[in-house]
Amino acid sequence: MRESVLICALAVACATLAAVLPGRAASQTFPAVESFPDPRDLRPSNSPPDPLVMLDGRRVQDRAMWEKERRPELKRLFQHYMYGYMPSRPPKLNARVVREDRSYFGGRATKREIDLQFGSSVTRPIHLLLVTPNGRAHPAPVFVCIAFCAPFAAVNDPTIPVPTGWMYPGAPGIVNNRATEAARGGQVDVWNIEQTIDRGYAVALYYNGDVEPDAPSSREGVRWNLLRRGRKELDSLDWGAVAAWAWGAQRVVDYLVKDPSVDRKRIAVVGHSRNGKAAIVAGAFDERIALVIPLQAGCGGTAPSRGTVGESVTRINTSFPHWFNANFKQFNDRPEFLPFDQNALVALCAPRPVLFSNAEEDSWANPTGQFKVLRAANAVYRLYGSGGISATSVPPVNTLIDSQLGYFIRPGKHSMTKVDWDAFLDFADRHFGKPK
């Protein structure tokens, strides 16, 4: 009863919220956080809102109501209060194969380097590395990989040119945020592409900086190049970098669904850390993505915003002010006022499989809180009869829970390793079926 009182009070504060139409133009009807009723009077501060309760207090009764009303409402809420409003799909995507090698990895694969150009010619292209297994009877399932590196670092291949754009500092071979030849092949063991090919899967890898450089002061990325006509600055509702990287993954999917070498019905998305945040946003907002694997994504991705362990909303907004929209900063030090939590983002992926993957020593990503997020999305998965996750506690290390909502934790720290990829591939085998 008290929960219903809170929801109804919030609905009054939102005024015409239930009638809001999808899209950027209708977003102004959402209220500022100051007008929300205080939820701490009615529920524990770390308890997430029920994803099956509409903002006007009605409870979702069935799958049809979820798909017609609640799911669109949650998508608008996440864009308005957290990730920012993403542009629609560009009307045209130009793809140009720059290089091709049909005898890659000793003849076991075909490699293509593809430039994906969308929007105006001012918008930089996505440099996509697509590697597909040879000798298979059927098109290959494919992992869309959101990377911290350009393709030249993910494989040992002298034919891939050194990129010229902004690069993450700190990695070997990166000098003044620019790549040098010394960085070539530096992340082979991170992406394990050859292993993935040998398991029968394709890999479509792109560098997140091709879409949006991870720098607060940068104006080189898609967020600035696709500003609405007449605008010169981003506003509080415009998309942050996480949404831009997710949008980039969706543009890769635009290409893949038309490529006969890959299976358009078996597309997975993978990202680590901040790219894991982008991976789950991409999956939540694009139903063409059939399987979602965010690795150690933490706050703003797979960990609860209301959590008291690891990175907080305040900390992430302070350290990375460009990742989310300005509205999200209203919830600094008061995340309990959010009208959703990350369990609702998982719910937007239903009924598709989602795997949360973590490491024991990575407390900053809140592995236990992530498990609770999965559990709190169960009710929506049950609408589809899939069961979600039945486990009630975090599994032992190196033990994969491969239910529709999956979980894996290994020894070690914040990183992407071969052990992670073993779990990813086993999870994909379970839900896609082993490639033939």
Indicate the topology:
Layout: H1 2-14, H2 63-83, E1 93-103, H3 104-107, E2 109-118, E3 126-133, E4 140-147, H4 151-154, E5 174-175, E6 178-179, H5 188-191, H6 193-198, E7 202-207, H7 208-211, H8 222-225, H9 241-256, E8 262-272, H10 274-285, E9 291-295, H11 313-319, H12 342-347, E10 354-359, H13 367-375, H14 378-383, E11 405-410, H15 418-432
Parallel strand pairs: 4-7, 4-8, 8-9, 9-10, 10-11
Antiparallel strand pairs: 1-2, 2-3, 3-7, 5-6
Walk me through what this model shows.
By secondary structure, the protein is an alpha/beta fold. The chain has 2 domains: 2-83, no CATH class; 93-432, Rossmann fold. It contains 15 helices and 11 strands. The protein has helices spanning 2-14, 63-83, 104-107, 151-154, 188-191, 193-198, 208-211, 222-225, 241-256, 274-285, 313-319, 342-347, 367-375, 378-383, 418-432; strands at residues 93-103, 109-118, 126-133, 140-147, 174-175, 178-179, 202-207, 262-272, 291-295, 354-359, 405-410. The strands form 2 sheets. The chain has a 9-stranded mixed sheet with strand order 1-2-3-7-4-8-9-10-11, with helices on both faces. Strand 2 and strand 3 form a beta hairpin. Helix 9 crosses helix 10. It starts with a helix and ends with a helix. 49% of the residues are buried. Residues 12-28 have low confidence and may be disordered.
